[in-house]
Amino acid sequence: MSKKSIQLPSLLLLACSITAGVVSAGQSGQLVSEWAASFQAAEGDNPLPATEGRWEALNSSDGSVLSARHEAAGVVVGDDIYLIGGRGNRPVERFSSRHGGWENLGSAPLELHHMQPVVLGTRIYVLGAFTCCYPREQLVSGIHVFDTQSATWDVAGSIPSARLRGSAAAVQHNGRIYLLGGNTRGHDGGAVGWFDEYDPGTGQWRVLADAPHARDHFSAVIVGQTLVAAAGRQTTMPSPAANPVRPVDIYDFNTGQWRSGAPIPTSRGGAVAVAHGTETIIAGGEINTSMTALKVVEAYDLESDSWRTLPPMNTGRHGSGGGIIGRQMYMLSGASSVGGATETRDAETLRLAEIMTEASDPPDPDGNPDTEQTDETEETDETEETDTTAPADTPEPVMDSGDDDSAGNTPIDESDDQAMEPPVISRRGGGRMGVEFLLLLAVLLVVRRWHRAGYCAA
């Protein structure tokens, strides 16, 4: 029986013509399977948009638990998250995301609290901290360093006396540490907008332009070539949890200039800040108008200068540790009421949906995706000259080689016997992409059968 052509709708005619070359090369099955696998991987890794997720309790695999504490800090190194400090000289504790258990690594040489640790390689730098007692806490002048390989502490230097403060934010960018804001008088006034650069390789300090707004009890993050500071307050007696700072301060490392971002919807101090893609996630905190710590989680998008609300935590907390490993956000310990009367050891996690394509995802300060910090030194986008003098245990900043990843940018030569690249599937905008892709996949499967039957012949 001879095979005849049939009249097809314009869409299927177009599909026949597009896939003719691929089918003739015997690649339609591979094309369909690769595209399907790509879609299934995206769906499986990120089953829900972030706004539809929920926080879940973090339970260890071996029954180990973390210590209850507040005014502590969390920091990610590789696949582990470290919980450091807190009032009362609490131990350093490490949670392995691979093994699922907590490990006690001993105490710091002194009580450290109200700080934001910074990671360089396998070393954790703690500076801009308080020690001792409320409400006029002492300022910690030393730069204390915890080596995650040997679980030992060292002192790398000291902060100049004129720039001493506690409850400051600290971030790492291009191998240098930036200390922002803080308070010079504990909880009794003295909030500042100071901004300093510290080079661990040379020990040198450089005073930079003050931030537009003085603040303490906050954390900062790096998003691409910018620093984002959101939340926090200007602490003073007799109501230390009052006076929150609503504006967002943004520093551009390329221009050396500050600008303002959209104000935070829920102003508070004592929150955790982490970077995820182009967003800065602010979780928890406290405010004097509520007797309990806040469960609220909000995200600021640098590109759109806008905020959105994420799922609230199960436990309100402030003075907590937090961080992101891969697509998982962790919130650890803290105080569940205003002040520190009710410390908690509760830990919970939120599975973050993929909110942008990998190609447009900006690097984190160490060049790793989603702020996951590893021991490897990665390339950065910084193009200015950097002092490469550094101690043996501090990774040197690596300049951008200028090489550009050209994957997906090379024109397809239909004469080449190479498989087509599967499309990059973004989860932005919810599940609409899934419906469109399934329709396309169905068309391709039908056309593949028609090719075999000869119905796509001219």
Structure commentary:
Helix 1 packs across helix 3 and helix 2 packs antiparallel against helix 3. This protein has three helices and 26 strands. With 458 residues, it is α+β, with helices and mostly antiparallel strands. The protein is globular. The N terminus is likely disordered. The protein has a domain of 282 residues: Neuraminidase (6 Propeller). The relative contact order is 0.15. Helices cover 12% and strands 27% of the residues. The two termini are 18 Å apart. The strands form seven sheets. The protein has a four-stranded antiparallel β-sheet with strand order 1-26-25-24, with no helix packed on it. A four-stranded antiparallel β-sheet has the order 2-3-4-5, with no helix packed on it. Strands 6-7-10-11 form a four-stranded antiparallel β-sheet, with no helix packed on it.
Shape: globular
Q: What is the radius of gyration?
A: 26 Å
- Assembly classification: single chain
Q: What is the average of the pLDDT values?
A: 78
Order of strands across the widest beta sheet?
1-26-25-24
Q: What is the CATH architecture annotation of the domain at 70-351?
A: 6 Propeller
Q: Roughly how many Å apart are the termini?
A: 18 Å
Determine the number of helices (DSSP H or I, runs of at least 4 residues).
Answer: 3
Contiguous uncertain segments of 5+ residues? 1-51, 354-433
The amount of beta strand, in percent, is 25-35%
Q: Let me know the number of strands.
A: 26
Q: What characterizes the major β-sheet?
A: 4 strands, antiparallel
Q: Which secondary-structure class do the elements indicate?
A: alpha+beta
CATH level-4 homologous superfamily of the domain at 70-351: Kelch-type beta propeller
What's the CATH topology name of the domain at 70-351? Neuraminidase
Helical residue percent band: 10-25%
